[in-house]
Request: fold
Amino acid sequence: MQNFELTILGCSSATPTSKRNPTAQLLNIAERFFLIDCGEATQIQLRRFKLKFQRINHIFISHLHGDHYFGLVGLLSSMHLLGRTVELHLYCPAELQEIIEIQLKHSQSHINFNIVYHPHQFINNDLIFEDERVEVRTIVLNHRIPCCGFIFKEKPLMANISKEVIHTYQLSVEQIIAIKTGADLIKENGDVIYNKDLITAVHQPRSYAYCSDTCYDERILEYIQGVDLLYHEATFLQEMEIRAKETFHTTAFQAGMIAQKAAVKQLMIGHYSARYKDLAPLLAEARSVFENTVLANEGESLIIKNYD
Amino acid sequence: MQNFELTILGCSSATPTSKRNPTAQLLNIAERFFLIDCGEATQIQLRRFKLKFQRINHIFISHLHGDHYFGLVGLLSSMHLLGRTVELHLYCPAELQEIIEIQLKHSQSHINFNIVYHPHQFINNDLIFEDERVEVRTIVLNHRIPCCGFIFKEKPLMANISKEVIHTYQLSVEQIIAIKTGADLIKENGDVIYNKDLITAVHQPRSYAYCSDTCYDERILEYIQGVDLLYHEATFLQEMEIRAKETFHTTAFQAGMIAQKAAVKQLMIGHYSARYKDLAPLLAEARSVFENTVLANEGESLIIKNYD
Reply:
């Protein structure tokens, strides 16, 4: 099966702590490396975990609070200084372009690769990236400033036919293509071998939804329904529900509720307030509602499984 | 003696490595905490080394290459989020104000403390900070974009008179003030006690010169003459002299030459190119010219001694 692996680079909320960095994640789908948010020191985290950052060609920034993008201009500078010439795509609020360009101007710097800006429209289900393997769409989140989540989906794979089957039935190229797209095999004597007996089982396309930052908002449910992994912020414990609402954030309990109502396969929580040194209570609270929950932990990778 | 202590937070040049962060230093003179440059992740380094960043009231930025200021907006944000209300002074190129304000604007953020900008004039010996204990002046450096170094100097301390001397001669307040400012004591019987026999030895004011980034330029010598500690960048080994010149940087050999010609008491080198994993050759090269050289090492503090 192709790679579908998420690595956490930072899982802190607004202020970093001595143990946790601000938000950033690296998602590898079939060797496409997507960087999701880019808090301060993301380039240092990438080096620390030995992840080659020149392989990143697409960066998705959810919103313009600093803990989600302050590391971007440094990463772009280092990509340039280390010789990058490959085009880079930035999916972000439109204003980020001005923030980057003003810094390049005042440092009298030129970046030796093209940056293609894809400004967010802040509409649901907007297809912002697509190639033969993956598509990425937006989810509008409910935060203090305009904010987008993202859903990364594999495209359905063509069925596979084993070498043994090809050999047994002496299949021609035309027959292989026909079977891959669903046809049965009709032998010369008229016998029919059904498609399901010719192909290797094909997994359902997997999906990952990234929701940070947002208050509890059930309007996202229809867009994240049944995803294989949901990352949802859980800045506070439920005892801080009022504070969560005031700051347009979510509690661990509420993140569990969203996961349950959307019938996702697995939940990862993160974006922890600096007040929580021990994350176990956040995990326990989310699990009290939605059992298959894990904590975002820096440096850890999670392979997104297929539950079907 | 009052504190005069330098702590290195980052000593890498343009690109951070997995072991070294971009430039930042914390200087404590008599409990004034001066932050000198603020590369990416400076706030994380401050936390890592358990240095309370709310005590910093004055930040000096040498120039607008990102490895010297990309950590500033994150530090300011965290100061705000953690409740700062105390005014902060920023000594920096004028354009930095626009860079900070545009980011506050687009994040719809307000910072709850006043930032007082002191834009560099880029002239030598410009007095940019002064209080009863310390003064700070600029040195114009020779870099690809306008760049300032800084000289931090203690002010001369008034002479001290021991309790025993005050008791022995039954000194009045008027006599104490006169003696502290240099007068001899004339006793009632006409005997003269010379000033030097009344006062405790007072150390000469100490000084620290910070020079980063710059190519080899002897025009700085007159301003840094005889300082107790000179920090001078040493991005490359002498075998890279041409590259150093092209990029307006200095070699370790050249940093040693500057220290020798300025007759400084001690030299610290830093701003190492990411190509050097082992720093021993840089140290050896600088020491071949100027023996009393040390390496800038992250997390290490150096107490600036009085050599007189």
Remarks:
- Chain B has a mean pLDDT of 94.
- The two ends of chain B are 14 Å apart (CA to CA).
- Chain B touches chain A through 37 residues (CB under 8 Å).
